[in-house]
Amino acid sequence: MENNQPIIVKRVKKSAGGHHGGAWKIAFADFATAMMAFFLVMWLMSSATPEQKRAISGYFQDPVGFTESASPYAIDLGGTPTPAPERTLNPDMSETPESQPDEVNISSDMVETLADKMERERLELLLQELQNKVEENPQLQRFKDQILFEITQDGLRIQIMDAENRPMFALGSAELQPYFEDILLAMADTIRAVPNKISISGHTDAKPFVGRGDFGNWELSANRANAARRTLIAGGYSEGQVARVVGYASSALFDREDPLNPVNRRIDIIVLTKKAQRAIEGEQGADEGAAAPAASDAPPAAQAPNGAPGDPLPADQVRQRLNIFEDGALQFDQLNNQ
C-alpha cells in the first residue's frame, strides 16, 4: 500500500537577541525612585537650618533618646525635636550647648525706633478716628473747615481756628462760645482713649489788645488756652494728662502774610509723642528747680456737683462754670460762687 501523506518540515529560526519581558521597567522605576529620593535629601539639606541639621544628626546617632523625649520624627513641622539626655544612649548628646538658639542682640536705638513707629501708627489711628467723628457728628460737621489735623514731629496737632463770622471766644476775652465748647467736649472723649499727654497753646492775631495797660495778647492767649484746658477736664479728660498750657500771643502766626487774618486766632492741642513729652517734662523740671510756683497761684479745677474732680458735667453747667473770664481778667469771686 502506497503512502501519499505529505511531509512537513519545521525550521526554527534562532536569533542572537530575544525578548526579555518587562523586567527593565522595574529596574528603571527603582532608579527613578532612588534619584528622586537623592534630590529630595539634597533639597532638605540645603534648606535646613543648622539646628535642624544637628537634630537630624542626633536622631540617627541615638533614635531612642529622640523618639521617647519628643517627636518620633527627625523633622517635625510642629517644632524642632529635642533630645532627652537622661534617656539617651549617646553620651555626647547629654551636653549640646551648641544646640541652644543664638541670642538676638537688639540695640537701644532699634528699640526706640520700633517704639516711635508704633506710636506714630497709634497717632495716625487717632487722627482717623477724630476725622470720622467730625464727619459723622452733624454739630461738628458744620465747623470742619475750622478744624485741622496733622501729624508733626511732636505728635498729632489739632488746630481749632476762628472764622471771620464765627469766633471761638468773645471779643477780647476768654469766654468760650457754645459751639467751641461742644468741639472740645467731643475731642476730649476721643483723645482720652490714648495714654499720651497733651499740650495746649493759645494764639492771637497781631491786632493789639485794647484794655488795661498791664494786660495784652500774651495774657489773653494764655487765658484762652487755660479755658480750653478747663473744658477738656470738665469733659472727662484727666488733668494729669495735660503736660503744658502756654500762650504764644501773635508770635507764631498761622497766616504770616496776613497777621490780622482770623485764622491766626486759634487753639492748638498736640497729642504728644513720648520724646516730645520727655523734652517738655525736662524743661519743666529745670524751671521748677529754679523757682517753684506757689500752689495758691493755680486756679482750682472745675468739679462736678458731687465734688469729684474730673467727672463729666452737662453742657449747660460746663458753660456756666467755664465762662469766668471777663475783660481779659479771671474773676475769682465768680469761681468761688460756682
UniProtKB/TrEMBL annotation:
Belongs to the MotB family. It is found in: Cell membrane. It holds the Pfam family MotB_plug. Residues 71-103, 281-320 are annotated as: Disordered. It comes from the Bacteria. Residues 156-275 form the OmpA-like domain. SUPFAM superfamilies: OmpA-like. Its main location: membrane. This is Flagellar motor protein MotB. Keywords: Cell membrane, Cell projection, Cilium, Flagellum, Membrane, Transmembrane, Transmembrane helix. It is a single-pass membrane protein. It comes from Pseudomonas berkeleyensis. PANTHER family: LIPOPROTEIN YIAD-RELATED (PTHR30329:SF21), STATOR ELEMENT OF FLAGELLAR MOTOR COMPLEX (PTHR30329). The chain crosses the membrane at residues 21-45. One of its GO terms (cellular component) is plasma membrane. Residues 287-310 have a biased composition (Low complexity).
